[in-house]
């Protein structure tokens, strides 16, 4: 076998990076659970027709085939899921009778998209989603809760601060309708391109879509509004447009911004250019920037959806948000903004005087593990310097020297960073808390 | 959309089952890390030619295709991995220059096999693997360490006791060669069928493969040997066969059994009928039975391999074992042997007197969360009985009553299981440890 090479678009972490990822996931999970979200996983595959319900994404899907499937076998066509929202909506419909509503779940899983790989865009990547769904109706206060959870989750990490930008589809749609524009979805899709193509091109596209110059100007004026409190509402009203849906959207967005302002000042900003291209959002929409890394785009996005999960007369409106974990970590690793104190869980290496004394070293290791101290026994009874280098190369902070039959005195433990060495009993000794496991830094 | 139905072979857990799975995985991870295994994940896909190196498994592989791949596009053929050992061997070769050897990792991921689904056999399932690989040579004491880790890991779960059955390929091969049989691999594959087809059929097959009746009888006599200590070696020697490889295998197996006996009496048994069908094992092999559920077969299997990872002159021998997590959980859930105290992380529901007082209830929830208490706020200011039923239906043990502007006194908290209600401050109250989160039972 020749030495294999990486596969473009399918990132794999080295052990230290994986430890960092794991600790990030532990902290996200911890926060999600503090807010009462229960873990859920769905299968990796969905029937292809389900995945293709939204025409826009069809080109991203990987389809599956059993290598040995016979020509005549008419199996259900399957594809790998490209997000966690579509599978969750399907899960809710399938299991509605066994779930308690409102149902809040988090889901941390890989997703796959057959897009052309490029910096920050992978073909296989990890997402961490939270969603709250209810039966029939979903009170808007849940739209205000989502940013609190995400704010707490991301601020539990040693990473640059985040800014959550929020907007509301009803606000935009009401504004466009109040202006007299007849296809608000089309306008939304055009405004969504603002950061890419600039205001002049957006105005031109609105005019090409049948709008007047004045309407285009008003749409751009709306998109320019940003505020960290409910004062955005005054700026909207100053544009002089009226529509009941606009009022509803303004009130909902004001509640989201003010709830967040009480919880974490500076975390959330009403940003009226945020549109989110996907069609299924119907209320609040979210995007999240890492402060200082704005050029990388949103690391956490989502919104409220009313029509994603429905079967017959059963409707399950929801609101959710998704952290692009692989994308976020790839960016932070590359920028040197996130690492880990050591790439192994091991806190102690028990030295080995001879292969005959392995059982004695194993007993010491078992004693330490019984008190939660991650411990390895040296692989071979090499010279002491070599055993210490084994620990050093891995970042293992302590080496344990068992009392030897041939020498005086009892066990000793050495902190190989400071060189300090003390007598110790494997039945009582414990390292400082910060040395117990790897630390995110 | 019509209500979706489950996909045969692709199991999905309900929320309570998922909490149980998660807690099982937490405990496995904890034990693996105590032994110094670092977490690793590999991508879900491998080049198809890698997956098909072992011809036997080719029929199980799912291949991938981008739905919109053009006819002319000559992309690398990819398939989903069917185990975690083949991808790990590839990862080690690919990253050898960046890893420290001996390298110990655990890997908990889904794998996919396109087999016909049946009871306990899935098309998508979760495995938890540990492996230790070294460069050039791997000392045999690692083969003795693996059962200790698995024993600790599985005994940390509230499930029936396990028995790890071990054998050694060198022992079998040496015995068959010492008997004068010339294709020991073929004999091993025949003996592997013993439990399925019985001793008479095995003897017939050995004779058909060119063996004599006496040789067949000796092979069966070897396969009958079982012992929880090194006394199995006497039983082997009593069969009167001699070969240097046999001696080596007996010594290695004796070390595995005796190391385990010191650590956990009764956990490991030399069981000389264990063969493991896969060709790549070269030393110790493991299978694991749940006591009382022997008919379900092995829930945890593996062995030593010397030739799985090599590129040019670099060789990386290893030893590993794999817990079939989905299979084990499916079996335990079906038998009612494993469940969880509640299907949600939430310990406290904060009641809501009116929508206007939501900010006050949110503040109480934030206070409780700050001390690690998972808390939800009631979805709507319904009648108190309805709010309590919300908690009851989810197994949330406590309901918090905020001091109301309209009533006397301060906050109170009620244990809805006992009915006991006490005055409490959200800045100091803490529930008993056993109520903090769901418990495996």
TrEMBL record, chains A, B:
Q: What class of enzyme is it?
A: ligase
- Residues noted as binding L-histidine in the record, renumbered to the chain: 83-85, 113, 127, 131, 276, 280-281
Q: Where is this region: Disordered?
A: 421-441
What does the record give as EC number? 6.1.1.21
CDD domains from the entry? HisRS-like_core (cd00773)
GO-annotated biological processes? histidyl-tRNA aminoacylation
Report the superkingdom from the record: Bacteria
**What cellular-component terms does GO give this entry?**
cytoplasm
A molecular function GO annotation: ATP binding
Which PROSITE patterns has this protein been placed in?
A: AA_TRNA_LIGASE_II
Kindly give the InterPro entries that the UniProt entry links to this protein.
aa-tRNA-synth_II (IPR006195), aa-tRNA-synth_II/BPL/LPL (IPR045864), Anticodon-bd (IPR004154), Anticodon-bd_dom_sf (IPR036621), His-tRNA-ligase (IPR015807), HisRS-like_core (IPR041715), HisRS/HisZ (IPR004516)
Stated name of the protein: Histidine--tRNA ligase
**Into which family does the record put it?**
Belongs to the class-II aminoacyl-tRNA synthetase family.
Taxonomic source organism: Dactylosporangium matsuzakiense
Keywords per UniProt: Aminoacyl-tRNA synthetase, ATP-binding, Cytoplasm, Ligase, Nucleotide-binding, Protein biosynthesis
Relate the assembly described in the record. Answer: Homodimer.
The catalytic activity, as recorded, is: tRNA(His) + L-histidine + ATP = L-histidyl-tRNA(His) + AMP + diphosphate + H(+)
Show where the Aminoacyl-transfer RNA synthetases class-II family profile domain sits.
22-345
């Amino acid at each position: 076998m020749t030495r294999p090479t990486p596969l473009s678009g399918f990132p794999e972490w080295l052990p230290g990076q994986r430890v960092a990822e794991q600790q990030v996931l532990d902290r996200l999970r911890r926060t999600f659970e503090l807010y009462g979200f229960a873990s859920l996983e769905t299968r990796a595959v969905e029937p292809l027709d389900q995945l293709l319900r939204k025409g826009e994404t069809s080109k991203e899907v990987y389809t599956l085939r059993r290598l040995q499937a016979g020509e005549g076998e008419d199996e259900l066509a399957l594809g790998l899921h490209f997000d966690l929202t579509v599978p969750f909506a399907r899960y809710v419909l399938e299991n509605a009778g066994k779930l308690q509503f409102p149902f809040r779940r988090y889901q941390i899983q890989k997703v796959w998209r057959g897009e052309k790989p490029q910096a920050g865009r992978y073909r296989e990547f990890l997402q961490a989603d939270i969603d709250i769904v209810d039966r029939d109706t979903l009170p808007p206060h849940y739209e205000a809760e989502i940013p609190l959870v995400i704010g707490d989750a991301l601020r539990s990490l040693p990473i640059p601060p985040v800014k959550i930008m929020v907007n509301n589809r009803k606000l935009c749609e009401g504004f466009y309708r109040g202006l007299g524009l007849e296809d608000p979805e089309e306008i939304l899709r055009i405004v969504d391109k603002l950061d890419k193509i600039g205001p002049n091109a957006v105005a031109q596209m609105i005019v090409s879509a049948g709008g007047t110059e004045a309407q285009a100007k008003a749409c751009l004026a709306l998109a320019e509004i940003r505020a960290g409190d409910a004062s955005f509402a005054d700026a909207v009203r100053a544009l002089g447009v009226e529509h009941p849906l606009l009022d509803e959207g303004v009130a909902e967005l004001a509640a989201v911004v003010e709830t967040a302002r009480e919880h974490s000042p500076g975390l959330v900003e009403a940003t009226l250019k945020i549109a989110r291209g996907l069609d299924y959002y119907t209320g609040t929409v979210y995007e999240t920037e890492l402060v200082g890394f704005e050029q990388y785009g949103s690391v956490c996005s989502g919104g409220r959806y009313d029509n994603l999960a429905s079967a017959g007369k059963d409707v399950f409106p929801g609101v959710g948000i998704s952290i692009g974990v692989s994308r976020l970590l790839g960016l932070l690793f590359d920028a040197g903004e996130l690492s880990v104190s050591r790439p192994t869980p091991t806190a102690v290496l028990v030295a080995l005087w001879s292969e005959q004394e392995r059982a004695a070293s194993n007993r010491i290791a078992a004693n330490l593990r019984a008190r939660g101290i991650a411990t390895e026994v040296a692989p071979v009874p090499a010279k002491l310097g070599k055993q210490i280098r084994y620990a050093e190369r891995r970042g293992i902070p302590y080496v344990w020297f068992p009392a030897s039959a041939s020498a005086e005195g009892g066990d000793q433990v050495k902190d190989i960073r400071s060189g300090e060495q003390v007598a110790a009993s494997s039945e009582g000794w414990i390292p400082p808390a910060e040395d117990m496991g790897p630390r995110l830094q």
